[in-house]
Model the fold of this input.
Amino acid sequence: MEHFDSKAEVAEYIESIKGDMAATYFMPGFYAQNVKGFIRPGPDGIPTYTAPWHPTETQVPVLDAAKDTGTYVAAILANDPATVNGLYVPAVSQWRTPRQIVDTITAVSGTQVKFNPVPEQVYQSFLPAKIAAELTENMVLIRDYSYFGRDVEKTRAESARVLRGAQTVSWEQFVEENGPWKW
Done:
């Protein structure tokens, strides 16, 4: 998966050459700004978010990239470099399941939006050929291993420790501030 592997290779390279310099790795979650583009009218005309995810079990680490990137970077810089050196910081505004994502859009916008879980082969068939395999692999990774790997509870705790009380944008707040939600 080029999408994630290339980032890991960069971090490995930095660790191999940094010497006594501190390095912390900001790892942005699933961009909230991209959600609207994934929703399309279904065969019944109802706006539908389709992905190879489980509606209530897949945990999506939604990040308001416009607002919470700065929140995380400022928090990282405010920490003692020794306490964040070599640390991978998963940046998440709020964890949400696909069902919670669409239910919030429905509640805030007043337009029904539904989630449609599909097998990865079906999902892949919706995408342009050049990116279909990689994007499908990314979605399956999120479903089967979590966006940041299986040790999700540890990554949540690490993010909270680095943030030191700084508040991130809730999914509901993001939906309220980024309408209209029309398709």
